[in-house]
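HUMAN: Quick job: go over this next protein and say how the chain folds.
***
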Amino acid sequence: MPPREAAMEALMRLAAEQPWNDIEVGDIAREAGLSLAELRDLFPSKGAVLGGLARIIDRKVLEDDGSDLAEEPTRERLFDVLMRRLDAMTPYKPALRRIAYALRGDPLSMLALNGVALNSHRYMLAAAGIDTEGPLGRLKLQGVVIAFARVTETWLDDDDPALARTMARLDKEIRSGERFMERAEDARRLAAPFRALGRSLLDRRSNRTRVPDAEDAEPAAQI
């Protein structure tokens, strides 16, 4: 197993058995069979090891291109991608449950993980054929991160092999997100004339502002 992956797997084994805040980088190195120097070359912190796990999950999801759903509605494609993500997370569920509980009261860590999630879900949306560029792209991306976090909360407590509660929550979040984005798109269209007017006024103001020539720029020119 590559050293990076060994470190991530080691962290997950440790997190499944002991409190997150008790795990030290030395523990991860020993569990992974690495020296501290080797672990330091790979990751700067325990949180970075956890962030690296997201890339492993990303790859597992993206290796299945979902081409069989290419003709399905956007909602169905996104549902499939996010369920595949949960499937890829399943081996780490006990560890993730304990980590999620530990980090609920740590806003700085949650903010850092939000950045990791944004990068991951940019690719999840791409896998579902959903655009993340344009005026509403960032809103769409942050929205799916928040929605998936809510779904994950349900999933962590859902021990039913059929994951009925999780799937119901995911369907609800996707439909809610669709309605929100429709309203946001309507608001953007309604605001378009005002944005155009604002740009026009700024352009006129810029044209009226005379750029001083070289002589005017000299302090002595004002004497």
